[in-house]
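pinned: reference chain
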Amino acid sequence: METKICSNCKIEKPLTEFTKSRNKSLPNCKKCRCEISKLYNLKNKEKRNIYSKQYREKNKDKIKEKRSKIYCQEYRKINRDKINLYAKNYYISNKESQKNSQLKSRFNITLEEYNKMFQKQNGVCAICGKNEEIKGRSLAVDHNHQIGKVRGLLCGKCNKMLGLSNDNIIILESAINYIKGFLNGIS
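pinned: its C-alpha cells
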C-alpha cells in the first residue's frame, strides 16, 4: 500500500487519505484539508458570502440546471456504482456520526445518551432480557408515540410487540390472559 506524509499534520497515511487533483494527490490529507477549509471559511466568512452571492447571481441558469431533477437522475444513473461505493465507504467510516444523527432526528437523543441507557440495561432488552448484539443488531429505541418520550431499549421482537399492540395496555393484558388460559389448561 502506497503512503504519503501529510504536509500539515506530518503523519504518514495511505494515499486513499489524500484528495486527487488532476491525477495527482494533494499535499494535505483529507482531514487536514477539511480543517484548513473550515478555518479559512471562518476567517473569511464575509468574503465567502459575497463571492457566493455573486457566483449565484452570475450562474443562476447553471445552478438551476444542476439542481433539476433530470440532471440528478441522469447523474445517478451514470454514476450509480461510484455513488454506492462512496455511500458505503462513508457509512463505514462514519458509523457513530450516522447513528448519532439518526438518533437525534428520530428520538431527540444523542449516541451518548443511547450508550448510557444501554449500560444501565446491561446491554439487554428491557422486557425479555435478551442481548441483540449477539445477532449483530443494536437494541431498538422504544418511545411513546403520542408524546415522543423515550422509555428504554428493546430487542426487535419486543419493540414490534408493543408497536403492533399500539402500546395499548388492555390489548397486552388480554394477550397475557389468553396465554395464561392455555397454560392453565383452559381453552
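why pinned: Residues 30 and 105 are 27 Å apart (CA to CA). The radius of gyration is 26 Å.
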